[in-house]
Model the fold of this input.
Amino acid sequence: HYARTGAEGALQMAADTCAAMARGGIYDQLGGGFARYSVDREWIVPHFEKMLYDNALLCRVYAHLWRATGSDEARRIALETADFMVRELRTAEGGFASALDADSEDAEGRHVEGAFYVWTPEQLREVLGEDDAA
Done:
C-alpha cells in the first residue's frame, strides 16, 4: 500500500509488524528463515515447518522494507532468509524443495516436532557455560 500511495502509516505498520516477526519465535535466530506459524498467542513457540513459499514472500517483504526505510534489521533478515533458502532448500538437481518438515529425529530416534531446533537447559549450559545459559 505504501509503495502505491506513500501513506507513512502503512509503512510504519509494516515496519512494526516485520520487526515483531523478526524478533519473535517464528524467525530462526540461528539458521535464518521463518517457520510457517506460531502455535501460541504470544508468537514465541513456532510450528517448526519452514515453507519455501512463505520464506520467498517474506524475503521479498523484508527486501522492500529495507529499500523503503534503509533498515539494517530488514536488510539482515532479507539476506539471512535468502541464504537459508539457498542453503537448506536447494536440491542437488538445482531446484528447490517445497519445505523442511516440522518433525525431526530426537536423540532416541523418534520423530518429534522441533527436535532439531529445541535445546534443553542442559545443552545450553554445555554450549554457553553456566553464566550465559542462566
Remarks:
- Residues 128 and 134 are 9 Å apart (CA to CA).
- The radius of gyration is 17 Å.
- The chain has a mean pLDDT of 91.
- Residues 52-69 form the longest helix (18 residues).
